[in-house]
Design brief:
130 residues, mainly alpha, three-stranded parallel beta sheet, 3 strands, globular
Length: 130
């Protein structure tokens, strides 16, 4: 499932950018409620995007959820946590965690989500039975 398919719904418009510079241009031109960012971009690092967001007064408070499969060093992890509101590392539960984190920032009502997305969040929040 793509990030766009995971997060998109009748109540959310999702825009996709292929590069960091494209994303920064789009963010400067249109209002957004939340950003999902992969650290691996073809033209710049995700850290550079985060730093530019931090250094742009109109974008400084924009919630950013970092969704990446990049193996982070302890220094990168610490740096990332100072720059982003939330970090979701790709893994077994990562689509559910990404949906959960973005739902929080977008003030989405879980009961209003499609049933399959409600089920994803239920699985995330229900402890596994042994």
């Amino acid at each position: 499932m793509t990030i766009q398919a995971l997060l998109g719904s009748d109540d959310i418009d999702v825009s996709v950018s292929a590069t960091g510079s494209e994303a920064l241009t789009t963010l400067a031109e249109e209002p957004f409620d939340c950003v999902v960012l992969d650290l691996r971009l073809p033209d710049m690092s995700g850290f550079e995007v985060l730093e530019r967001l931090r250094d742009t007064p109109s974008l400084r408070d924009l919630p950013v959820v970092v969704f990446t499969g990049k193996e982070l060093s302890s220094e990168e992890d610490a740096r990332l946590h100072t720059l982003a509101r939330s970090v979701v590392v790709k893994g077994v539960e990562s689509p559910e965690r990404l949906l959960d984190e973005t739902a929080l920032f977008l003030h989405r009502v879980v009961a209003d989500l499609p049933v399959e997305k409600q089920n994803m969040l239920d699985r995330l929040h229900t402890p596994m039975k042994r």
